[in-house]
Write a structure and sequence with these properties.
about 210 residues, alpha/beta, Lysozyme-like, six-stranded mixed β-sheet, 7 helices, 6 strands, about 30% helix, binds zinc ion
Length: about 210
Protein backbone atom coordinates (compact mmCIF):
# COMPACT_ATOMS: atom_id res chain seq x y z
CA UNK A 1 0.00 0.00 0.00
CA UNK A 2 1.57 3.24 -1.15
CA UNK A 3 0.21 6.64 -0.18
CA UNK A 4 -1.50 8.42 -3.08
CA UNK A 5 -1.95 12.19 -2.76
CA UNK A 6 -4.42 13.86 -5.12
CA UNK A 7 -2.95 17.24 -6.02
CA UNK A 8 -4.68 18.20 -9.25
CA UNK A 9 -3.54 20.70 -11.84
CA UNK A 10 -5.89 23.69 -11.55
CA UNK A 11 -8.79 23.79 -14.01
CA UNK A 12 -8.04 26.28 -16.76
CA UNK A 13 -4.31 25.57 -17.07
CA UNK A 14 -3.14 24.66 -20.58
CA UNK A 15 -1.91 21.29 -19.37
CA UNK A 16 -5.36 20.38 -18.02
CA UNK A 17 -7.23 20.10 -21.32
CA UNK A 18 -10.23 18.43 -19.70
CA UNK A 19 -11.26 16.19 -22.59
CA UNK A 20 -13.43 13.37 -21.25
CA UNK A 21 -11.54 10.09 -21.13
CA UNK A 22 -12.51 6.48 -20.66
CA UNK A 23 -9.06 4.97 -20.04
CA UNK A 24 -8.23 1.90 -22.11
CA UNK A 25 -4.43 1.94 -21.72
CA UNK A 26 -1.75 2.69 -19.15
CA UNK A 27 1.37 4.45 -20.48
CA UNK A 28 4.62 4.20 -18.53
CA UNK A 29 7.31 6.91 -18.56
CA UNK A 30 10.54 7.80 -16.81
CA UNK A 31 10.95 11.41 -15.76
CA UNK A 32 14.47 11.58 -17.28
CA UNK A 33 15.24 13.93 -14.38
CA UNK A 34 18.12 12.63 -12.28
CA UNK A 35 18.48 15.79 -10.19
CA UNK A 36 18.46 15.39 -6.44
CA UNK A 37 15.00 16.10 -5.07
CA UNK A 38 13.23 15.40 -8.40
CA UNK A 39 10.63 13.41 -6.50
CA UNK A 40 6.89 12.87 -6.97
CA UNK A 41 6.19 15.91 -4.76
CA UNK A 42 8.50 18.08 -6.86
CA UNK A 43 6.78 16.92 -10.05
CA UNK A 44 3.40 17.74 -8.50
CA UNK A 45 4.59 21.32 -8.06
CA UNK A 46 5.94 21.32 -11.62
CA UNK A 47 2.61 20.07 -12.98
CA UNK A 48 0.73 22.93 -11.28
CA UNK A 49 3.00 25.60 -12.76
CA UNK A 50 0.91 27.50 -15.35
CA UNK A 51 3.90 27.45 -17.73
CA UNK A 52 4.14 23.65 -17.83
CA UNK A 53 2.96 22.38 -21.22
CA UNK A 54 2.69 18.64 -20.50
CA UNK A 55 0.64 16.58 -18.09
CA UNK A 56 0.09 13.02 -16.92
CA UNK A 57 -1.92 11.30 -14.22
CA UNK A 58 0.53 9.97 -11.64
CA UNK A 59 4.15 10.46 -10.56
CA UNK A 60 5.66 7.66 -8.49
CA UNK A 61 8.82 7.76 -6.39
CA UNK A 62 10.25 5.37 -3.83
CA UNK A 63 8.00 6.53 -1.02
CA UNK A 64 4.79 7.99 -2.42
CA UNK A 65 2.54 8.72 -5.39
CA UNK A 66 1.02 12.03 -6.52
CA UNK A 67 -2.03 12.16 -8.79
CA UNK A 68 -2.20 15.25 -11.02
CA UNK A 69 -5.35 14.64 -13.06
CA UNK A 70 -8.64 12.82 -12.54
CA UNK A 71 -8.79 9.51 -14.43
CA UNK A 72 -11.75 10.63 -16.53
CA UNK A 73 -9.73 13.47 -18.08
CA UNK A 74 -6.86 13.23 -20.55
CA UNK A 75 -3.34 14.56 -20.26
CA UNK A 76 -0.64 15.50 -22.79
CA UNK A 77 2.08 12.90 -22.25
CA UNK A 78 2.13 10.40 -25.12
CA UNK A 79 3.46 12.57 -27.95
CA UNK A 80 0.93 11.21 -30.46
CA UNK A 81 -0.99 14.40 -31.14
CA UNK A 82 -4.10 16.11 -29.86
CA UNK A 83 -6.40 13.28 -30.90
CA UNK A 84 -3.93 10.40 -30.48
CA UNK A 85 -5.03 7.30 -28.59
CA UNK A 86 -2.08 7.62 -26.23
CA UNK A 87 -3.01 11.15 -25.25
CA UNK A 88 -6.76 10.63 -25.25
CA UNK A 89 -7.26 7.12 -23.91
CA UNK A 90 -4.33 6.33 -21.65
CA UNK A 91 -3.43 6.93 -18.05
CA UNK A 92 0.08 8.40 -17.90
CA UNK A 93 2.46 7.30 -15.14
CA UNK A 94 5.89 8.88 -14.62
CA UNK A 95 8.44 6.93 -12.57
CA UNK A 96 11.04 9.13 -10.85
CA UNK A 97 14.74 8.57 -11.32
CA UNK A 98 16.13 11.24 -8.98
CA UNK A 99 19.69 10.38 -7.96
CA UNK A 100 18.85 10.63 -4.25
CA UNK A 101 15.95 8.18 -4.57
CA UNK A 102 15.68 4.39 -4.73
CA UNK A 103 14.77 3.67 -8.35
CA UNK A 104 13.98 -0.02 -7.84
CA UNK A 105 11.60 0.83 -5.01
CA UNK A 106 9.92 3.44 -7.24
CA UNK A 107 9.54 0.76 -9.93
CA UNK A 108 7.95 -1.62 -7.41
CA UNK A 109 5.55 1.14 -6.33
CA UNK A 110 4.63 1.80 -9.96
CA UNK A 111 3.96 -1.91 -10.49
CA UNK A 112 1.66 -1.88 -7.48
CA UNK A 113 -0.17 1.20 -8.81
CA UNK A 114 -0.55 -0.28 -12.30
CA UNK A 115 -1.97 -3.51 -10.92
CA UNK A 116 -4.48 -1.53 -8.87
CA UNK A 117 -5.49 0.66 -11.85
CA UNK A 118 -5.85 -2.38 -14.13
CA UNK A 119 -8.29 -3.89 -11.67
CA UNK A 120 -10.23 -0.69 -11.00
CA UNK A 121 -10.42 0.45 -14.63
CA UNK A 122 -10.70 -2.98 -16.29
CA UNK A 123 -7.48 -2.57 -18.29
CA UNK A 124 -5.62 -5.68 -19.48
CA UNK A 125 -1.87 -6.22 -19.08
CA UNK A 126 -1.60 -6.17 -22.90
CA UNK A 127 -2.71 -2.52 -22.76
CA UNK A 128 0.08 -1.50 -20.37
CA UNK A 129 2.51 0.09 -22.80
CA UNK A 130 5.70 2.15 -22.83
CA UNK A 131 5.60 5.74 -24.04
CA UNK A 132 7.65 4.46 -26.99
CA UNK A 133 4.56 2.56 -28.21
CA UNK A 134 2.79 5.82 -29.10
CA UNK A 135 5.49 8.13 -30.42
CA UNK A 136 8.70 6.16 -30.80
CA UNK A 137 10.41 8.18 -28.05
CA UNK A 138 12.93 6.13 -26.06
CA UNK A 139 10.85 6.23 -22.87
CA UNK A 140 10.73 4.88 -20.17
CA UNK A 141 14.45 4.97 -20.81
CA UNK A 142 15.45 2.93 -17.75
CA UNK A 143 12.86 0.19 -18.32
CA UNK A 144 12.73 -0.45 -22.08
CA UNK A 145 15.61 -2.93 -21.98
CA UNK A 146 13.78 -4.91 -19.28
CA UNK A 147 10.20 -4.24 -20.35
CA UNK A 148 9.07 -7.88 -20.25
CA UNK A 149 10.31 -8.41 -16.71
CA UNK A 150 8.80 -5.07 -15.67
CA UNK A 151 5.42 -6.29 -16.93
CA UNK A 152 5.86 -9.68 -15.31
CA UNK A 153 6.44 -7.83 -12.03
CA UNK A 154 3.05 -6.13 -12.35
CA UNK A 155 1.22 -9.45 -12.15
CA UNK A 156 3.37 -10.44 -9.18
CA UNK A 157 2.97 -7.14 -7.31
CA UNK A 158 1.23 -7.42 -3.95
CA UNK A 159 -2.41 -6.43 -4.01
CA UNK A 160 -3.72 -3.53 -2.03
CA UNK A 161 -5.00 -4.81 1.33
CA UNK A 162 -8.22 -2.91 0.68
CA UNK A 163 -8.82 -4.95 -2.47
CA UNK A 164 -8.38 -8.46 -1.13
CA UNK A 165 -11.60 -10.37 -0.90
CA UNK A 166 -10.92 -12.13 2.34
CA UNK A 167 -10.41 -9.82 5.24
CA UNK A 168 -8.41 -11.55 7.94
CA UNK A 169 -6.51 -8.62 9.42
CA UNK A 170 -7.45 -7.83 12.99
CA UNK A 171 -8.64 -11.44 13.25
CA UNK A 172 -12.12 -10.60 12.00
CA UNK A 173 -13.93 -12.12 9.07
CA UNK A 174 -17.40 -11.03 8.05
CA UNK A 175 -19.60 -13.83 6.77
CA UNK A 176 -20.88 -13.23 3.25
CA UNK A 177 -23.83 -14.87 1.52
CA UNK A 178 -22.91 -18.36 0.35
CA UNK A 179 -20.02 -18.79 2.80
CA UNK A 180 -19.62 -22.03 4.67
CA UNK A 181 -17.71 -22.43 7.90
CA UNK A 182 -15.32 -24.91 6.28
CA UNK A 183 -14.48 -22.41 3.53
CA UNK A 184 -13.89 -19.67 6.10
CA UNK A 185 -11.60 -22.04 7.99
CA UNK A 186 -9.54 -22.50 4.82
CA UNK A 187 -9.52 -18.76 4.02
CA UNK A 188 -8.59 -17.61 7.51
CA UNK A 189 -6.37 -20.52 8.46
CA UNK A 190 -8.36 -21.00 11.67
CA UNK A 191 -9.80 -24.45 12.29
CA UNK A 192 -13.57 -25.00 12.22
CA UNK A 193 -13.52 -26.07 15.88
CA UNK A 194 -11.77 -22.86 16.90
CA UNK A 195 -14.07 -20.71 14.73
CA UNK A 196 -17.05 -22.35 16.44
CA UNK A 197 -15.55 -21.84 19.87
CA UNK A 198 -14.57 -18.19 19.30
CA UNK A 199 -17.93 -17.27 17.82
CA UNK A 200 -20.23 -19.43 19.90
CA UNK A 201 -21.41 -21.34 16.86
CA UNK A 202 -23.20 -24.49 17.98
CA UNK A 203 -24.19 -25.83 14.57
CA UNK A 204 -21.35 -25.63 12.02
CA UNK A 205 -23.88 -25.89 9.18
CA UNK A 206 -25.73 -22.79 10.30
CA UNK A 207 -23.85 -19.48 10.14
CA UNK A 208 -25.35 -16.05 9.61
CA UNK A 209 -24.48 -13.45 6.97
CA UNK A 210 -22.83 -10.40 8.51
ZN1 LIG B 1 7.71 9.45 -21.66
Amino acid sequence: MVKITKDFIPVGHNNRPGYAMNPAYITVHNTANTAKGASAAMHARYEKNPETPTSWHFTVDEKEIYQHLPLNENGWHAGDGNSGTGNRKSIGIEICENSDGDFEKAVANAQWLIKKLMKEQGISLANVVPHQHWSGKYCPRKLLDRWDSFKAGISGAPSSPAKTETKTSGSTYTVKKGDTLSEIAVKTGVSMAKLQAYNGIKNANKITVG
